[in-house]
């Protein structure tokens, strides 16, 4: 199983709800890179996209694309290609450095809210050691939380018994200040399928158990590495 898929994609739809949809372009890859689109302010906003055959047809079910969003400094992915195809800008947080200049597409900056979407921008992490710039998006009215990296559902995020897990590199310093006060109905993540039921309890369990369950996660990862 490759870490990242390439070549011919095989789009698998995930996380469909009234206000949007998600997909994984290469379902057999180990990283399980997930992308999402949601409807807000009369348009479709595409988040951290990995391009795939059939993507434009999927997006068209929800309307016209209004913008593409990069939420993590290393999630440029196919944002420029999707934005150029739909003749829209790529939106990047105004504090995120080193991303805009690497995108071959028009760039718009956003601050505390993503344009007029009603999605509040949350600084999840802004650090130089390790290099990590990440923004979350939270729409309180719909209960939708998008977190691209600090939490996920890919197998390598999850200690035994977890539905949502803190990234292995952040287990000892989980993003409690950024995410701990939120009460989402659904959590969309950048790696793996989203948490579409009992999301608040899954988030609380992930944050509260991050340190305590880290030995179990690291042990699982080591065993998988040795057996591979």
TrEMBL record:
InterPro entries: RibonucZ/Hydroxyglut_hydro. This is Glyoxylase, beta-lactamase superfamily II. It comes from Halogranum rubrum. The lineage of its organism: Archaea, Methanobacteriati, Methanobacteriota, Stenosarchaea group, Halobacteria.
């Amino acid at each position: 199983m490759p870490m990242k898929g390439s070549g011919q994609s095989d789009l698998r739809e995930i996380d469909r709800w009234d206000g949007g949809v998600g997909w994984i372009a290469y379902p057999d890859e180990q990283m399980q890179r997930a992308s999402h689109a949601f409807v807000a302010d009369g348009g479709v906003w595409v988040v951290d996209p990995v391009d795939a055959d059939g993507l434009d047809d999927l997006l068209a079910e929800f309307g016209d694309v209004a913008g593409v969003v990069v939420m993590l400094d290393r999630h440029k992915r196919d944002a420029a290609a999707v934005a150029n195809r739909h003749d829209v800008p790529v939106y990047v947080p105004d504090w995120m450095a080193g991303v805009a200049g690497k995108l071959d597409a028009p760039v718009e900056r956003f601050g505390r809210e993503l344009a007029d979407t009603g999605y509040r921008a949350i600084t999840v992490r802004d650090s130089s050691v390790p290099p990590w710039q990440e923004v979350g998006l939270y729409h309180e009215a719909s209960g939708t939380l998008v977190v691209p990296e600090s939490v996920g559902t890919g197998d390598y995020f999850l200690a035994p018994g977890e539905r949502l897990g803190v990234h292995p590199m952040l287990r000892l310093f989980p993003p409690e200040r950024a995410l701990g006060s939120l009460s989402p109905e659904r959590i969309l993540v950048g790696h793996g399928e989203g948490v579409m039921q009992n999301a608040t309890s899954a988030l609380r369990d992930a944050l509260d158990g991050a340190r305590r369950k880290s030995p179990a996660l690291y042990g699982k990862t080591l065993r998988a590495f040795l057996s591979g």
